Amino acid sequence: MERMLTLFLLSPFVFCFFTIVTSQQDNVCFRPELAANIELDGLQRYFSPGEELVLSCKQGYTPVSGPRKIVCAASGKWTTTKFICIPKRCPYPDPLSNGELYYEDTVFQSTINYTCDYGYTLTGDSTAVCLANGTWSTSVPECIPVSCGLAPIPQFGMIIYDKTIRGNTIAYGVRGTYKCLPPYVVFGNARAECTVSGNWTKTPECRVVTCPPPENIDKGYMSSNDQKDYDYMETIKYGCNGDYVLEGSLQIVCQHNGNWSEKPSCKAPCSVGIQNARILYKGQKIWIKDLLPNRVLHKEIVSVYCMDKARKCGYAVQTQCIDGKLKIPECFEQPSVLDYNLNSSLLPSEIKQC
């Protein structure tokens, strides 16, 4: 504050006085340091005792408690206040159908991240920010199912969908199977799928496939001996002569690779290589001399009788005809002609069975 000082000067000629204005700086308040979210108007740096400052919150924050004024005291210090500013809060976001949302808080400047479930596409913004006015920057986006157009059809081909299709759009994950008109064959993956990218898997081609004339099998015959090329999926049947048995598929098929499927084979019958004994064949006990003709077919089972000498009983042991070979079990003992003719009741097949 200012004060007046009066001085008197004498000179030989004049007696006069004048006043000098001086100033003395009292205790002043410096611009206060407040919490980061509290705002002060203007740029004034020094304040005189008695001056007031009105406190306010920065944008995005809400005042809590008070008072909202502070006063510069004569001591050069500001009066105290409990005035604080807390972030504004946005409402809790709505759920996202067929998707997920991730956030840690809903206060000012918080962020929400949106993602869609597999097979869905996000329509709208993938993030939202809580604004200063307490609202979200964007509304909740949508998760739209991925879809494809109708599957492309190769020339001479068609597709059979796994489910009924209506309209020209097909949902993600729907599958179908390609087929070609004969004599064309699918080259590539015959199964198609609408993928998550909204596109179909690679479309196969339809190509003509033929197989050369097939060869006959040993001891067998074919349903056709035409020396021509056969179209894809055409078949030839096989059979065997006499007592030979067909092993494998009855027919072969012209395959998509231009080769025939595996041919069957004819397997030979077997002779039972014993002379004086009884056997078990097709559930019946018969003397070997009554097996007419002496042969069993491929894969048929015959049982011969062996003796358990310790227990004095007989038992049947199976053996199987495999392509003309019938192995007689080692336990079997060929009876002599005398025993066979005079003592047949003592043979392993006739005594008590173990």
From TrEMBL:
Pfam families linked: Sushi, Sushi_2
Q: What does UniProt give as GO cellular component?
A: extracellular region
Q: Which SMART domains match?
A: CCP
**What keywords sit in the KW lines?**
Disulfide bond, Glycoprotein, Heparin-binding, Repeat, Secreted, Signal, Sushi
Any S-S bridges, and between which cysteines?
C29-C72, C116-C143, C211-C254
Q: Which SUPFAM superfamilies match?
A: Complement control module/SCR domain
Q: Where in the cell is it found?
A: Secreted
**Signal peptide: which range, if any?**
1-23
**Summary of the function given for this chain in its UniProt record:** Binds to various kinds of negatively charged substances such as heparin, phospholipids, and dextran sulfate. May prevent activation of the intrinsic blood coagulation cascade by binding to phospholipids on the surface of damaged cells.
Report the protein name in the record. Beta-2-glycoprotein 1
**Native species of this protein?**
Sander lucioperca (Pike-perch)
Q: Which gene encodes it?
A: LOC116043044
